[in-house]
Amino acid sequence: MPVSMIPSFLIYCFVGGITPGPANLCSLSAALRYGRGPALRQWRGLFCGFFLDAMGAVALTWLLGAALNEYVGMLAWVGAAYLLWMAWHMARSRGTDPDHDPAAPSFRAGLLVNLTNVKVIIFCVTALAGYVLPYNPSLWALLPVGIFLPFTGPACNLVWLFAGASLQTLFASHRRAVDLVMALSLALCAVSLVWPH
To answer: How far is CA 74 from CA 71, 78, 87, 119, 140, in A?
Structure first.
């Protein structure tokens, strides 16, 4: 990518990472309900899932090029189904003890969130196809950008996580309402993935 494109690329990464999406909402909700420690466990899974998505996007962008679009639609339905499953469990959750609540944040939950997070997949593919591929289609040009991308979205997840941890005591008396709002937000993310534009 030309040096003149780097500011635009960084703005794209920031806006794509900080805007509400499944991983950010999960980070906020986990920190509000369980505190910083359990939410950070989930965040490590989010980071690993983002990294795997980015490496998959590098491989797919490099190998499949334009044929990639037909697979994004299928991934949207898988991601939407998982988001609805998460929303259902978040809305039904009663406990706040991460050791005894099956819906508590975990590495595996974070990993699954981002492995099925179509926002992250599209974010990575768009970054690679828009900022790298037109200038250099080689694997060696795509790979460094793919390695950089997991440090953008998950860094923004931390902003949401620490905001949730800071607000935890404020929302403790309104936990049920917060759970329902977060579940509804995840459900809206799921609908927006598959709803025709």
So the answer is: 5, 7, 20, 13, 28
